[in-house]
Amino acid sequence: MGITSTLYFGYTEKEVETKEIVTPFGQVSVYLHNQKIKFHYTTKKHIFKNGISANIHRIAIDTMQYQLHDEFDVRVGNVDGFEYYDSDEHTVMCEFHDKKYSIAVIGYDSDYDFERDCFIEDAFTFSTDAENYGMNYKIVRDPTSFIKNNIIYTWIVFLPISDAYDAADLIDIELV
Asked: Which superkingdom does the taxonomy of this entry point to (predicted)?
């Protein structure tokens, strides 16, 4: 994911601490050991190049509050069976489609050092599990590397399905 990606910038609303976000597919929640945990989130409106607008929900989890190897499940309503995509060298993405929406859950598998303008590899690892909802994160912090930003970011996008465009491609091409 490039540093110029629209996922990084443009969030003007203040982050809110919560245990759930209401979406067209039900609540988005973050679980640790099958217990809902608090997280911070903010939302922004994104207008795609084809004129369609959608909200991008950015979830932030501070990993310093938890243990190495803790696994976080980001669950989107009652959606099960996300498809897994590895979008580029720094991004992972899961998608789900029904007759109305394409849902993308996006994460990145490295930390970004804004001062040095570079990615720090192997800071976190991400995987998906078809038996769970959404994306499953397993934190693997390398204790020998200094990570400035201990926040895991996850982005959730709901894009209406249309015969005029491929929602999954639009999300992948324009956002990641």
From this structure: Bacteria
